[in-house]
Design a protein that fits this description.
By secondary structure, the chain is of the alpha/beta class. The protein has a single domain (9-92), classed as 3-Layer(aba) Sandwich (D-Maltodextrin-Binding Protein, domain 2), CATH 3.40.190.10. It is 24% helix and 15% strand. It contains three helices and four strands. It is globular and about 75 Å long.
């Protein structure tokens, strides 16, 4: 008797800078998306990977939380700002990947300094 195949996992990834920083992490983990994933003009939602049990979706950052919160994806990478904005009990942040850092700069006239 053959074992049943493992259920497919869907990972939601945000478009933009966080995606650019997450791709090397995925590569180090042995996850390589299909070539169309790198094309910003690709119209598809789901992208295959070299792992048959893993599919990637590329969506807006706030949609990552929605996809995971409503079980359209089982895991995702998103900034902590998005996690704080959404109050879904299904979302938690077990790992800080050290990507997506930002800073706030404030400028004022020299005469006020």
């Amino acid at each position: 008797m053959r074992a049943a195949p493992a259920p497919a996992l869907v990972m939601a990834l945000p478009k933009g800078r966080i995606l650019d920083e997450a791709l090397p992490l995925l590569e180090r983990a042995g996850i390589r998306p299909e070539p169309d994933f790198a094309r910003e003009d690709a119209r598809q939602l789901r992208f295959a990977t070299n792992l048959p049990e893993l599919t990637l979706v590329r969506v807006r950052s706030f949609d990552v939380a929605t996809f995971v919160g409503f079980d359209a994806a089982q895991l995702g990478i998103v900034g902590s700002d998005v996690l704080m904005e959404f109050d879904y009990p299904e979302l938690y942040a077990p790992v800080d990947l050290g990507i997506g850092r930002c800073r706030l700069s404030v400028a004022e006239p020299e005469s006020l300094a």
